[in-house]
Automatic annotation (TrEMBL):
Compartment(s) where it occurs, according to its Swiss-Prot or TrEMBL record: Cell outer membrane
Superkingdom of origin organism: Bacteria
Species the sequence originates in: Pseudomonas vanderleydeniana
Presence of the UniProt keyword Zinc-finger in the record: no
Biased composition (Low complexity): 114-131
Lineage of producing organism: Bacteria, Pseudomonadati, Pseudomonadota, Gammaproteobacteria, Pseudomonadales
N-terminal signal peptide: 1-21
Residue ranges, annotated region (Disordered): 109-131
GO terms, molecular function: efflux transmembrane transporter activity
GO cellular-component term (any): cell outer membrane
InterPro entries xref list: MdtP/NodT-like, OMP_efflux
Membrane disposition: Lipid-anchor
Protein name per the record: Efflux transporter outer membrane subunit
Amino acid sequence: MARGSRLLSLALCGLMLSACAVGPDYQRPDAAAPAQYKEAAGWRQAQPSDALARGAWWELYGDPVLNGLVEKLNSSNQTVAQSEAQFRQAQALVRSSRGAFFPSVDLSAGKTRSSQGTGSSNSSLSSSSSGIRDTYNAQLGVSWEADVWGKLRRGLEADKASAQASFADLAAMRLSQQSELVQNYLQLRVIDEQKRLLEATVQAYERSLKTTENQYRFGVSGKAAIAQAQTQLKSAQGDLIDLAWQRAQFENAIAVLTGQAPADFKLVATRDVPALPQIPLGLPSQLLERRPDVASAERSVIAANAKIGVAKAAYYPDLTLSLSGGYSSSTYADWISLPNRFWSVGPKLAMTLFDGGQRSAEVERTEAVYDQTVAKYRQTVLDGFREVENYMVQLKVMENEAGVRQQALDSARESLRLTENQYKAGLIAYLDVVTVQTTALSNERSVLSLLQSRLLASVQLIAALGGGWDGATEPVAAK
C-alpha cells in the first residue's frame, strides 16, 4: 500500500508540473497596416478570417462556360491536388503529436533457445547438449512520458499551427489557379473578339481593293493605289493569322489547369466577351480577413514560436513512468502460471548534462527562425496592401481611359465613313483612305486591348482581396 501511494503521489506531481510550459506564449507580431486605402474610402483595418467562405467569385463575369471550367479546376487541378496532399500530411502530424500524450502499450511474446558452455575443454558433446535451455516469455509493458515542461504541448501547438498554415496554403493555391484560369479565359475571349474585328476588316479591305482595281481599269486611279490596297489587306491577313497561335496557347493553358490533355480539349469561339464586374465604391476591408497567404504567414509565426518552447524544454529532464509485467518459464506446459509471473514499475528521469552547446545552439536557431517568419509575415501584409492599391488605381485610371478611347474610336469611325464616301466620289486619292483606315483599326484594337487589361485587373484585384468582396460569413473548417 505504501509503495502504491508513493507511485500515485509521483504521478500526481507529474500531472501538476505538466500544467506549465517553457518558452514564450504567442503574440501576434505588429505589422504596418494603414487605416484605409488611398484609392477607396470606407476601408477599416481587418482581422484575419481566412476561414470565411469566398463564394464562387468567378460568377461575377456571368459566363456559364467559365463557371464550368472553374468547377472542373476545383476537382481536377493537379497543382491543387499536391497542396491538398500536403495538408493531409500536416493533419497526420497533428494526430501523431496528440498520440504522444497517451501511454504507449507494448505486448511481446517469444521463445528463446540458449546455451552456456561448461567451462571444461574435456566435456563431451552430449554434456554440452544438455546445457541448451528453452525460455518462454510473455510481457506487457506500459510507458508514459509526463509532459512536465510542456515539450509535447509546444510540439502539438507547432504542428497544429503548421497544419492551419498548410490549409491556408491550399486555399491560396486554389485561388491562384482559379485566378490564372479566369485570366486565360478572358484573354482568349478578347482574342475571339479581335479575330472577328480583323475578319471584318479583311473583308472591308478586300472590297476596297476590288474597288481600286475597277477604278484603275477605268483610268480613275493609278497602280500605286492598288499596291497600297494590297499592302493593307495582306497586313491585316497576317495579323489575323498571328492570333491563331496566341489563342491556342491560352486554350492549352486552360486545358492543363482543368486537368486535361490539350489534345482532348477545345473551346468553341463565342460572340460575347464577359462583362466587366461592377466594383463597389466602398469596400469593407477584407484584405487580412480573406487573404490565405497572410493567414499562412501568421500561422507559420505561431509554429515557429512554439518550436522555441520545444527547444528550451531540452534543458530539463524527461520524466517517464513505466510498468511492465508478464510470465517467463523454461517449459511451455506451465508457462502461463502464477509462479512464473514477474513485474516491474517505477519512474525514470533522464537529462543531458553536457552536449557541447547543442541545446543552446538549437534555441538560438529556433529564435532566428521565429524572427525570419515574423519578417516574412510583415512583408506579406505589406505586399498585400500594395497589390490592392495597385489594382484599384489601375482600374480607376483605365476606367477614365476607356471613356477617352471610346470617343477616339467614335471619331475614327466617323472619319472613315466620310473619307470612304469622298473616295467613292473621286474627290480624294486612295492614300488618304488608307491612312484613315489604319487609324480606325488601331483605335478598334486599342479599345479591345484596354478592355482586356481592365478584365485582367479586375481578376487580380479579386485575388488580392482574397476571393471577392461579397461579404460571405460562412466559415470553412479545416478538416
